[in-house]
Specification:
InterPro entries: DNA_recomb/repair_RecN, P-loop_NTPase, RecF/RecN/SMC_N. This protein is an alpha/beta fold. It is 57% helix and 19% strand. The protein contains 19 helices and 15 strands. The strands form three sheets. A six-stranded antiparallel beta sheet has the order 2-1-4-5-6-7. A hairpin with a 2-residue loop joins β9 and β10. α11 packs across α12, α15 runs parallel beside α16 and α18 crosses α19. The mean pLDDT is 88.
Length: 550
């Protein structure tokens, strides 16, 4: 249960700290006093998203901290699974920074909002007027029946299997479509693959062929240039060799006179040796150069083949063509094995459908047993809430479809008076009747739930008088098993609480702020009297308030 709540710099609250006790707690206050602000702050602790509008002072951070006593609720496994430190007195803190960023902590360990939301499911149920309207939703109705039917574990296992079943169905449909398209696709892929295989491509081949083509295509120019170079090198009177030898001879005469001249001689000698090597290489190249039109044509054909394949497959290198070839080989193999894969997947889906049917049958049987129990308990409670002729008709309609919670469809029909036909809740139930039905549902679920805390936000809409008194008594009875809060405008309900908190506005230095205060017995009499008669409290209102409290 929640034992304390502190709020700093949130909405109209500058600073607030309050302790809560077990049992039945009442929260009252005028419209606009800040009751929704308290719930909003609590919602942030439970993982709701926040923004800068939450900050009262935009220059300071907002801090909301709640302490929960959780020793009786078997939550150690959750803490271990999420790598969190477990404490019997667990503290959840939420911070909203002026930058707009939000941080959350469980026992000082940073957590994300999803972890916070998951933990909150085990801590508090905040019932709002919107939730009352959701009572007419089929999914909500199923959740009520399944809680009494103890179907949670079965539905959880069913949903895990259903997820795999749907994934395999999606894959099978894709394979079947692929198979239907595979005739033309297989033929075309095989053609493309054969074309690439026939080309006998090799990595780096294109560069080698392009170099060879350039050489063969320009053989006459190349040979002419090389031969001219050899003539210049070897001409007897003016050739490079002749001139280098003349230079060497001249330098040999002066080399003994200086180290500098000796160095120059050595360098010229080195040049002569290197040039001699170049000349021999030129000679070898010249001898090997042949005008080979046939080889040129073959090289050109191979290059054109590579260029055409690159254009067809929209790539620029032979390596990319080889990757295309590998992909086509895999595609051809994959299409060849598709029938076997379809057969295997179909068998798996069929087996999972059998298992899902078994789960669905168990869920259905449990619901069938639970429906009379729920109906009788609802009728018993609602009779005490001024609905003596209420009747329910809950029918399970078998379906061939695997829904998220089984194969049932549900007709949840209601009649409030004798002689009236059954109808859908949202069409035939008034606002006051919906509030009473929802309270009855919560009272029943409290017997099956291990939830520590339940907060009713104005569940008394549309009721008054004796019905309000009985609603208060039911919430009081629920508080024997869990911590219950009721935000109410009705004095009959407010008088049933074990403790009473008032939300009010005050003005400090021209600034309005909301505050929450635990009322003493005398203050409580005054508050209930004011709820009865308004701002001008009469003696009869005070006496009536005392009677209600007694």
């Amino acid at each position: 249960m929640i034992t304390s709540l502190s709020i700093k710099n949130y909405a109209l609250i500058e600073k607030l700290a309050i302790d809560f006790s077990k049992g039945f707690s009442i929260i009252t206050g005028e419209t606009g006093a800040g009751k929704s602000i308290i719930l909003g702050a609590l919602g942030l602790v439970l993982g709701k998203r926040a923004d800068l509008t939450s900050l009262k002072n935009k220059e300071e951070k907002c801090v909301i901290e709640a302490q929960f006593e959780i020793s009786k609720y078997n939550l150690k496994e959750f803490f271990q699974a999420n790598d969190l430190d477990y404490e019997d007195e667990t503290i959840i803190r939420r911070e909203i920074l002026p930058s707009g960023k939000s941080r959350a902590f469980i026992n000082d360990s940073p957590v994300n909002l999803q972890e916070l939301q998951e933990l909150s499911l085990f801590l508090i149920d905040i019932h709002s007027q919107q939730q009352t309207q959701e009572l007419s939703d089929e999914n909500v109705q199923f959740k009520i029946i399944d809680a009494i039917a103890n179907n949670f574990d079965t539905i959880s296992a069913y949903q895990k299997l259903l997820k795999v079943y749907k994934a395999e169905k999606t894959k099978l449909n894709a394979l079947l479509k692929k198979q239907s398209d595979s005739g033309k696709e297989q033929e075309y892929n095989t053609f493309l693959l054969n074309e690439l295989v026939t080309a006998k491509l090799k990595s780096g081949e294109q560069e080698e062929l392009e170099a060879e083509f350039e050489k063969l295509n320009n053989v006459e120019i190349i040979k002419e240039s090389i031969d001219k170079s050899l003539v210049i090198a070897n001409e007897e009177q003016f050739g490079v060799f002749h001139n280098l030898n003349e230079i060497k001879a001249s330098l040999q005469k002066i080399a003994p006179f200086s180290v500098d001249y000796q160095n120059l001689l050595e360098r010229v000698t080195s040049v002569a040796i290197e040039f001699d090597d170049v000349s021999k290489e030129l000679q070898n190249v010249s001898e090997k150069l042949l005008n080979d039109p046939e080889r040129l044509e073959l090289t050109n054909q191979k290059l054109q083949l590579i260029y055409n394949l690159q254009k067809k497959h929209q790539v620029t290198t032979v390596d990319e063509l080889l990757q295309v070839q590998a992909n086509l080989e895999n595609a051809v193999i994959e299409l060849g094995n598709i029938e076997e894969e379809i057969a295997t997947l179909s068998a798996s889906i069929e087996q999972k459908a059998i298992e899902l049917d078994a789960f669905s049958a168990t869920i259905h049987d449990n619901r069938t047993t639970a429906i009379p129990v729920l109906s009788n308990q609802l009728i018993t409670i609602l009779e005490t809430l001024g609905m003596p002729n209420v009747r329910f008709k809950m029918e399970l309609l078998p379906s061939e479809t695997f829904f998220q919670n089984g194969k049932d469809e549900l007709q949840f029909l209601f009649s409030a008076n004798k002689g009236t036909d059954f109808g859908l809740l949202k069409k035939v139930a008034s606002g006051g009747e919906m509030s009473r039905i929802m309270l009855a549902v919560k009272a029943i679920l409290a017997q099956y739930s291990k939830l520590p805390t339940l907060i009713f936000d104005e569940i008394d809409t549309g009721v008054s008088g004796e019905i309000a008194i009985r609603m208060g008594e039911i919430m009081k009875e629920m508080s024997a098993k869990m911590q219950v809060f009721a935000i109410t405008h009705l004095p009959q309900i407010a008088a049933k609480g074990d403790s009473h908190f008032k939300v009010f506005k005050s003005t400090i230095q021209d600034a309005t702020q909301s505050e929450l205060k635990l009322l003493s017995q005398e203050e409580r009499i005054t508050e209930i009297a004011q709820m009865l008669s308004g701002a001008n409290i009469s003696d009869s209102a005070l006496n009536h308030a005392k009677e209600l409290l007694n």
